[in-house]
Amino acid sequence: MSEKQQWFQFQIEAASGQARAGRFSTPHGDVVTPIFAPVGTQAAMKGGVTPAQLEEAGANLVLANTYHLHIRPGEDLVAEMGGLHEFMQWRGPMLTDSGGFQVFSLAKLRKVDEDGVTFRSYLDGSMKRLTPESSIEIQEKLGADIIMAFDECAEPYDHTYSKAAMERTHRWAQRCQEAKKRDDQALFGIVQGGIFPDLREESCRAIAALDTPGIAIGGLSVGETKEEMNTVLDQVNEILPKDKPRYLMGVGSPQDLVNGILRGVDIFDCVLPTRLARHKAAMTMTGRINLQNATYRNDPAPLDEQCGCYTCQHFSRAYLRHLFNAKEALGGTLVSIHNLFTLLALVRQCRQAIEADRFADFAANFLANYQDGSQ
């Protein structure tokens, strides 16, 4: 088998119930699943976390944002600089989204038609346009290992519009396949359909029929309840092919990771760990810590006694609280490092539990002990 033929193979190495421990090959190394992908929206981590610090925290896959990089600095400049890996100095596997979600959630004065979407730039108000073909062209110039089909993410409770957006997403996915030229990038199709079982089933079967190397689950964590999201995951993962990695887009709380893995999800991404850090909140394996709380003013303990991250090995809660009160940027950086390490450690623990065929017990214990709220 040639080197190129070895790329984008997915192997399930262990299973425990619906949970899977797998490996997905890319030109920049293997993605070891289940995995959480930190989000570097504009080819950089929020909070000032460097690629070296990401690697030290255990990151295996990083996401960058097609929409934002198209707006600034532009995909041509990134290509001129050697592609995203060289531009941001990340040597491991990388994923770019299609820009579809940002167009529908951030863009003003957007207009959707069968060919694509016209929208106004959030930077200078200029009119921009994305189509399935241009989204693929941008992502090919950016050069990530995994790229996404251009899709339309609809409000989850409107059946009529969800159906129209889903059907358009299927047509756009086919156009993305036809437009794709590079053979060193894996194109994932995206399942849509809101919270509606009939639409989700139809979308699963349509996207699976395209036989893409992996399949993303979109249109979740956009306003529906946790119960509704888990119900959709239960349904789609029963239908989707077992031999393809499943990527749940934009989901990243500790409970959501465990619940997703329990239902057969392999890949996650989310801005949550660095966003929480900017708002003075730290993740632990049992809940969040709000560093604005006065009880931490003279607390000598680390954020988490059991954590092996750089922050917890060197700094106290009292010091971190001081940094935020003094408006020092270092506070956000140190808590970002910790939050990313926590999620990455959690998915490693999940993989170990799957390999030991005890994931159901692991998940039940974790969810029973996790407090959904700041301490």
In short:
With 375 residues, the protein is α/β, with parallel strands linked by helices. The protein has 16 helices and 17 strands.
Q: What structural category arises from helix and sheet content?
A: alpha/beta
Strand content is 15-25%
According to CATH, the homologous superfamily of the domain at 35-271 is Queuine tRNA-ribosyltransferase-like
Number of beta-strand segments: 17
CATH architecture of the domain at 35-271: Alpha-Beta Barrel
Can you walk me through this structure?
The chain is α/β, with parallel strands linked by helices. It has a domain at 35-271: TIM Barrel, CATH 3.20.20. 43% of the residues lie in helices and 21% in strands. The protein contains 16 helices and 17 strands. It has an eight-stranded parallel beta barrel with strand order 4-5-6-10-11-12-13-14, surrounded by five helices. A three-stranded antiparallel sheet has the order 1-2-3. Strand 1 and strand 2 form a beta hairpin. Helix 12 (272-278) runs antiparallel to helix 15 (329-355). The protein is globular and about 60 Å long.
Notable characteristics:
375 residues; 43% helix; 16 helices; TIM Barrel
